[in-house]
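Priority: medium. Attachment 1 of 2:
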């Protein structure tokens, strides 16, 4: 067995085909966990799971649409069936909503943001928790955002869903503390992923235009969030629940 702070653990990550989710799944595997990569983009998730296996880790990929009750239930149960249990769940998938004022935002775009960013986390948690109870405890990590705290014009749906996740994590933490299940949000600032490449056209433009909004003067890298995810997943954070870990280069300090 690989030695590491997550040796012997099973970790599930949604939105794991790329970006922060992939970096976190890779970091969990590096720390000894068996990892399940859940994503809409199953071809990429499968290729990334194969790469983790080639590097000596344990991994599987599962098709999953976090908006869909049956899809999430099937995927979570498939992971527990393959690896025997689930100890860590990172609810990380989110959709990209085009910038629009509240007046201009379509109801469809609003509903889509809620379905992926918020209902997706509800469903993933709902189906993870029974496995964690059987396991005698676990850690749920919900990827929120600095925009859970700091409002940005034209990002109403995103800010609202991310703010709601802070409260959802607290409720899960209170409901399941006695069962040794911890739930925390992890809130990145701007991180150089495909999401920002899509938003800004390319990553160079994202770095130039948005990096300076972070007092440290740059965007973050996925691995800088993944290391925090390892902390939240591991026993090193055993006294932390119902809380938010903000890793944003100082963005929210202004
Ligand atoms: N990148 C940033 O600057 C940043 C900042 C703050 C918070 N976050 C949050 O971090 C998380 C990951 O962001 P990222 O930048 O790595 O994103 P990304 O857009 O690069 O990757 C998201 C992944 O989620 C998957 N996905 C989308 N909809 C899905 C669905 N319905 N079901 C299953 N999978 C789905 C996509 O296929 C993709 O692989 C998100 O919750 C995002 O809101 C990102």
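Attachment 2 of 2:
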């Amino acid at each position: 067995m690989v030695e590491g702070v997550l040796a012997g653990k099973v970790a599930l990550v949604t939105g794991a085909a790329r970006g922060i989710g992939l970096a976190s799944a890779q970091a969990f595997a590096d720390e000894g966990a068996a990892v399940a990569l859940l994503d809409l983009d199953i071809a990429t998730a499968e290729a990334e799971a194969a790469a983790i296996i080639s590097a000596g880790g344990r991994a599987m990929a599962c098709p999953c649409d976090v908006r869909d009750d049956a899809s999430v239930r099937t995927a979570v149960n498939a992971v527990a069936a393959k690896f025997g249990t689930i100890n860590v769940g990172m609810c990380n998938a989110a959709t990209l909503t085009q910038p629009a004022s509240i007046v201009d935002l379509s109801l469809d775009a609003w509903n889509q943001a809620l379905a992926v960013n918020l209902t997706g986390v509800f469903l993933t948690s709902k189906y993870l928790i029974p496995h964690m109870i059987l396991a005698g405890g676990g850690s749920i990590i919900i990827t929120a955002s600095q925009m859970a705290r700091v409002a940005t014009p034209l990002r109403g749906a995103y800010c609202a869903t991310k703010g709601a996740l802070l409260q959802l994590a607290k409720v899960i933490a209170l409901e399941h503390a006695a069962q040794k299940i911890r739930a925390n949000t992890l809130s990145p600032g701007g991180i150089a992923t495909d999401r920002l490449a899509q938003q800004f056209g390319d990553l160079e433009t994202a770095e130039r235009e948005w990096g300076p909004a972070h007092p440290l003067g740059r965007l973050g890298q996925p691995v800088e969030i993944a290391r925090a995810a390892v902390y939240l997943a591991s026993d090193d954070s055993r006294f932390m629940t119902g809380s938010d870990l903000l890793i944003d280069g100082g963005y929210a300090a202004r």
